[in-house]
Amino acid sequence: MTKNKNKKLMRGNAVVGEAAIKAGCTCYFGYPITPQNQLPEYMSRRLVEVGGVFIQSESEISAINMALGASVAGARVMTSSSSPGISLKQEGISFLAGCELPCVIVNMARGGPGLGNISPAQSDYFQATRGGGHGDYRSLVYAPASCQELADLTMEAFDVADVYRNPVMILADGMIGQMMEPVTYDNYKPREIPPKDYILDGAKDRPSRIIKSLILNPHEMEEFNWKLARKYRIIEKNETKYEEFMMDDAKVAVIAYGTAARIAKGAVKRARNDGMRVGLIRPITLWPFPSEIIYRRAASVGLFFVFEMSAGQMVEDVRLALKGESEIYFYGRPGGIVPTPVEVQRLITRQYYQKGLI
Question: What mean pLDDT do residues 56-63 have?
Fold first, then answer.
């Protein structure tokens, strides 16, 4: 095996920053909050080096609206925060969707609700996958499970945001943001981006334009919402991502994402070593959710074991995906508790034998 000489050991938050730079991000606006502070710190240095714009805003609300303004002008723009800060950005994210403007938003989630703590958690799933703000809109949501995926998915996020003119969220947590792993940026394959014929860059040589989300005529508002709905169906068709691990003969399918999926993969390996037919389905996009593959697996899987670092949020999408075709067991650890693979494997083993899945 040849080693990739271009790999570099980096912290997760810095990985996101460098990936954004390599994807052509020229503007970053944010406000400090742990556990993602290394990201704006990194961007404050690197954007200056590449001639970009970095502003530490006076609040998260200001940051998201600055991002909207830069997107209107045609820039590739990113903002980041952690759970309560993302809550403050929700109105602005809704405006981005309503104006059909691209933007990449990073959430290094923490334990909540309220200010909670800075331990890693997955309690922002509902907020991320249901839009979060007001109105009929969706944001595409990536859930990386490693520093390498942080690099790959951040770079992809900028292209996807431009292709669909829509906000895209990277949903990780404090553990992924703080861990250090070797990464390469050589995996990036830029997509073909359509011309930005909507941006406001002066009307000297063209008719004037306007970008707005205020549509007072109810019929026009309804048609615009149906237009967004059609776009979201295209995103569901083209952008759904997932990983299957040891699923060919599995009788138990563990479903987990992000940090929880790393733990679950260790539990699955241990279960396999003990002779149990256990596999893993890992959603990489939380929206669009990989419902189709989960439903297809119900024909051969006797139990779906849903593991989240929350009190139970993704499990609702698993229920919707299965349409009552298979049994579900949920295991959650909310508030910033990070269980071990041994802990998860013990529960898998108990369910495996109780259900007679031998």
Answer: 97
Is the pLDDT confidence value at 1 over 80?
no
Unique residue bearing structure tokens 């944010």: 30
Of 174, 201, 344, which Cα lies nearest the Cα of 259?
Answer: 174
What pLDDT does residue 3 have? 61
For residue 43, what are its two tokens? Answer: 């961007």
Cβ neighbours for 331, distance < 8 A, ≥ 6 positions apart? 305, 306, 307, 308, 344, 347
- Give the ranges where the chain is alpha helix by DSSP (H): 12-22, 38-49, 60-72, 83-98, 125-129, 147-164, 174-178, 218-239, 258-273, 291-297, 314-322, 341-354
* CB distance 310 to 83 below 8 Å: no
Burial class (CB in 10 A: 0-12, 13-18, 19+), 203: exposed
CATH among 3.40.50.920, 3.40.50.300, 2.40.320.10, 3.40.50.620 for 242-354: 3.40.50.920
Q: How far apart are CA 273 and CA 107, in angstroms?
A: 36
88-110 pLDDT tens trace: 999 999 999 999 999 999 999 99
Look at strands 27-30 and 53-56 and give their pairing: parallel
Look up the CATH number of domain 8-239. 3.40.50.970
Q: What pLDDT, in 10s, does the model give residues 148-157? A: 999 999 999 9
Tell me the Ramachandran region of residue 13: left when phi exceeds 0, alpha when psi lies from -120 to 50, beta otherwise: alpha
Is there a contact between 180 and 106 (Cβ–Cβ < 8 Å)? no
